[in-house]
Amino acid sequence: MSTDENGALVEAPTLEGWDHALSGKVRELYVPHGSTLENASEVLVVATDRISAFDYSLTPGIPDKGRILTAMSLLWFEHLADVTENHVLSASDVPDAVRGRALRCEALDMVPLECVVRGYLTGSGLADYRREGAVGGHTLPAGLVDGSRLPAAIFTPSTKAEQGEHDENISVGEARERLGASLVDELEDRTLAVYRAAESFARERGIILADTKLEFGRSRHTKNIVLGDEVLTPDSSRFWAADQYQPGSTQPSFDKQFVRDWLANESGWSKNSLVAPPALPPSIVEATRAKYIEAYERLSGTTF
Q1: pTM score, whole prediction
Q2: Is 46 helix (H, G, I), strand (E, B) or coil?
Q3: A Pfam family matched by this chain, by name (predicted)?
Q4: Per-residue pLDDT tens for 97-121?
């Protein structure tokens, strides 16, 4: 396996019985030997320690990040089993070299839509609100500030961009035009149901789930819509400390926003630049690892 100077797994290992099929920003996908992504019945999803922001994979990696994301996704997949089907087949029947950071999963035909749900106003949703008074086609009350809790959680989809390109926020109406009303309505219902269940679970553990991004696919066997990818991790969600929540200011968080803030405000790099972001300093790497671990430990009630 290939690791960086911090010991973080950053490249795809060679795994007996599995063919490497695809490298994502932070994950590596494998299919059974002799299969392809198009015809495989299952895939092996390996979470590396890479971290991405503003559609760039950053260096160096965050040690143990892949293990944290895998453990947290498993926690949520199990908790949400009564809410929606998911793609996990096994976390134990995986190659020893990637045990703890790999999941055997049903191969899905992924829906080309990022299913974003927001319970609080921040990030790109806040930018849209300030410009239009609405987010994802949902008109919101006047006077909201960064961190405001919304009257009700809203479904605000975005396009699923090719690697190296940027996702684009679109309205629910636009999503229906692209993918069909029936499918998008089902995705909206499932996304909101997942958020409501997860938000309640997190709040009981002192964490506010401000927003999250989900991905769904269609089962090649049953044709059902199935929850895939990762779920409710610090990479795909905003987790805030409930006891420090204060609308109108930056919220203390346990997620990737910490890295985004450093890049945007302290690194001297502009996200509009064509130049790749600078390397993360050791202090940011260490603090990011600590935040991810704290999120997992608060939610799971166990020590990482």
Answers
A1: 0.93
A2: strand
A3: SAICAR_synt
A4: 999 999 999 999 999 999 999 999 9
